[in-house]
């Protein structure tokens, strides 16, 4: 519960029923892990869809094995589809439709799912939050246990060097200054004064550059914890260098491309890539505000922001890809063979209303 975001509305739930280790060895995790889980406090979230989110600080520059221990312990949930939820790791889709009953084969049956995550970046950055989120579709999500294991790099190293602090760098300059003054001696006042002034100027310029560089990095790296930062090369590879044949839509922001991104584990994900037009009125401030807003949003009726690119005057947003097309495509039969049934249209209207309500109220519902 220490790493659970908004833990005030969550209560522990447990069972004394015997857990079946049908699919995994009994030593995978203790019995108590699969006999307990977290649930939403009905007094606080009676009519809301509650998203579980964990933030765990980990070292940058390493891979991590994320193991989710799962077991359906609620007696009323016994069939496929009774409880479905999405799994997001670092704002990337790990599972669009997790179903514990379907995976395990029944109630009170223990299973686990493994995911490998790369926390990209320079090890000198220190720690960054590894974010794991469960987004329910109808009934609340379930997670019995969570393990995060740090994997060694090819050099068998599990730790990075500690960065030198700005105070250490400044003290090194001061020590050098003292040596220079002693070398010239107090008798040569003019030379000593010139050296003193030049050295002080160097210290000031160095510190300003250092602070400026760090402030820029902190602005960017702060978003890397919540969504992925793509290089321009990755975006160009994903879109075949912004091939017009891959354009799936256009808007005020600019064209939207269908692309493939590398997940880093020999798999790819289809995404929607929105490229800011050079003549667009949306500037850098609006671009970052959109990232700030969308990176915090996780709702079943809203498209998720996967990442962004801000390089060489190119500003790009990468979204979850909607494989079935837009609503307009279906309403006007564009690339769609059959019209939507009225029940489907009603469900779409309800879903859109829930998404808008979530955006306006900035909370689950």
UniProtKB/TrEMBL annotation:
<dbReference type="GO" id="GO:0004714">
    <property type="term" value="F:transmembrane receptor protein tyrosine kinase activity"/>
</dbReference>
<protein>
    <recommendedName>
        <fullName>Protein kinase domain-containing protein</fullName>
    </recommendedName>
</protein>
<keyword id="KW-0418">Kinase</keyword>
<dbReference type="InterPro" id="IPR045272">
    <property type="entry name" value="ANXUR1/2-like"/>
</dbReference>
<dbReference type="Pfam" id="PF12819">
    <property type="entry name" value="Malectin_like"/>
</dbReference>
<dbReference type="InterPro" id="IPR000719">
    <property type="entry name" value="Prot_kinase_dom"/>
</dbReference>
<keyword id="KW-0325">Glycoprotein</keyword>
<dbReference type="GO" id="GO:0005886">
    <property type="term" value="C:plasma membrane"/>
</dbReference>
<keyword id="KW-1133">Transmembrane helix</keyword>
<dbReference type="InterPro" id="IPR020635">
    <property type="entry name" value="Tyr_kinase_cat_dom"/>
</dbReference>
<dbReference type="InterPro" id="IPR024788">
    <property type="entry name" value="Malectin-like_Carb-bd_dom"/>
</dbReference>
<dbReference type="GO" id="GO:0005524">
    <property type="term" value="F:ATP binding"/>
</dbReference>
<dbReference type="GO" id="GO:0009506">
    <property type="term" value="C:plasmodesma"/>
</dbReference>
<keyword id="KW-0547">Nucleotide-binding</keyword>
<keyword id="KW-0812">Transmembrane</keyword>
<dbReference type="GO" id="GO:0004674">
    <property type="term" value="F:protein serine/threonine kinase activity"/>
</dbReference>
<dbReference type="InterPro" id="IPR001245">
    <property type="entry name" value="Ser-Thr/Tyr_kinase_cat_dom"/>
</dbReference>
<feature type="transmembrane region" description="Helical">
    <location>
        <begin position="180"/>
        <end position="205"/>
    </location>
</feature>
<keyword id="KW-0723">Serine/threonine-protein kinase</keyword>
<dbReference type="Pfam" id="PF07714">
    <property type="entry name" value="PK_Tyr_Ser-Thr"/>
</dbReference>
<feature type="domain" description="Protein kinase">
    <location>
        <begin position="242"/>
        <end position="365"/>
    </location>
</feature>
<dbReference type="InterPro" id="IPR011009">
    <property type="entry name" value="Kinase-like_dom_sf"/>
</dbReference>
<keyword id="KW-0067">ATP-binding</keyword>
<keyword id="KW-0472">Membrane</keyword>
<keyword id="KW-0808">Transferase</keyword>
